């Protein structure tokens, strides 16, 4: 819900959602959601249950990581 609220208020360009998969219990093999939890679980929920637009999804998961991980001197 909070991500939808931030997107509606124009903050999508400042969001960079991530997930944690640093413990054995997070791995799919041990019943966790694994490294693909955002793509397989959370993004569909954001779109279907909360109505986050595809434009905001692209901003948060494609454009923002490109900016955050770019390097310039």
Automatic annotation (TrEMBL):
Native organism: marine sediment metagenome
Annotated protein name in UniProt: Phosphotriesterase-related protein
Lineage: unclassified sequences, metagenomes, ecological metagenomes
Keyword annotations: Hydrolase, Metal-binding
GO molecular function: hydrolase activity; zinc ion binding
Coiled-coil intervals: none
């Amino acid at each position: 819900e909070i991500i939808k609220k931030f997107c509606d208020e124009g903050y999508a360009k400042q969001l960079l959602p991530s997930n944690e998969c640093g413990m054995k219990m997070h791995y799919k093999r041990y019943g966790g959601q694994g490294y693909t939890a955002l793509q397989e679980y959370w993004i569909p929920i954001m779109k279907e249950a909360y109505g986050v637009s595809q434009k905001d999804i692209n901003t948060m998961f494609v454009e923002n990581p490109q900016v955050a991980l770019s390097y310039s001197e």
